[in-house]
Specification:
Layout lengths: L2 H36 L5 E7 L5 E7 L24 H8 L7 H7 L3 E3 L6 H4 L15 E3 L12 H14 L2 H17 L8
Parallel strand pairs: 3-4
Antiparallel strand pairs: 1-2
């Protein structure tokens, strides 16, 4: 990606995230109320993730699990029939609404609209030199792995696709991923590891 493309990508990240936050703000309020009405606990699930160049940041999501059953650091693969997920959480995950608070992460520069999904520190600590390449760009709301199988992929398959994106990233590639993301959202493909 050229310097111009990097600058353009950041400008678009700021513009798109800010616009989407304004547009969907009423939805954020409604989702927050429904989460509180359904089960005890916080509205948001905030977790430390690894960003570009290994920098840690606080990744924000809507809480989709019962507070007392929040996943442990090593339990990151969630199945559709997982008892930790609330009924409303199933809906939020199906339509990726739980990820929407990450628009704030995009706005402040921790993330981008398109890029590899942010991962946990214990996962990154196991990376080899090839896998570390996925840390050369900002993590994204959606990415090449998300539109090519998402959670149905094995971890090595996801990383291979992420590194492919890093090695071939461009504005045109980002636009292609965004279009494919709409298709994935509609079909619900790969939301859970057992689908």
């Amino acid at each position: 990606m050229t310097l111009f493309e990097k600058i353009f990508k950041r400008i678009m990240d700021i513009f798109c995230s800010f616009a989407l936050i304004i547009i969907f703000f009423p939805l954020f309020i409604a989702v927050g109320i429904l989460i509180k009405l359904e089960s005890e606990g916080s509205i948001f699930f905030i977790q430390e993730r690894v960003g570009r160049n290994g920098v840690l940041f606080k990744c924000i999501k809507f809480r989709t699990m019962f507070e007392h059953k929040i996943i442990s650091e090593n339990d990151y693969e969630i199945k559709k029939d997982d008892p930790k997920i609330t009924p409303f959480g199933l809906f939020l995950r199906r339509w990726a609404i739980d990820e929407m608070p990450q628009l704030f992460n995009v706005l402040i520069g921790d993330m981008s609209i398109v890029g590899p999904r942010p991962t946990l520190l214990y996962q990154v600590e196991k990376y080899d030199d090839f896998q570390k390449k996925r840390l050369l760009v900002k993590p994204g709301l959606t990415g090449w792995a998300q539109v090519n199988g998402r959670n149905k992929l094995t971890w090595p398959e996801r990383i291979k696709l992420d590194v492919f994106y890093v090695e071939h990233c461009s504005i045109v590639f980002d636009i292609k991923i965004l279009f494919l993301t709409f298709k994935v959202l509609i079909t619900g493909e790969g939301v859970y590891s057992n689908r």
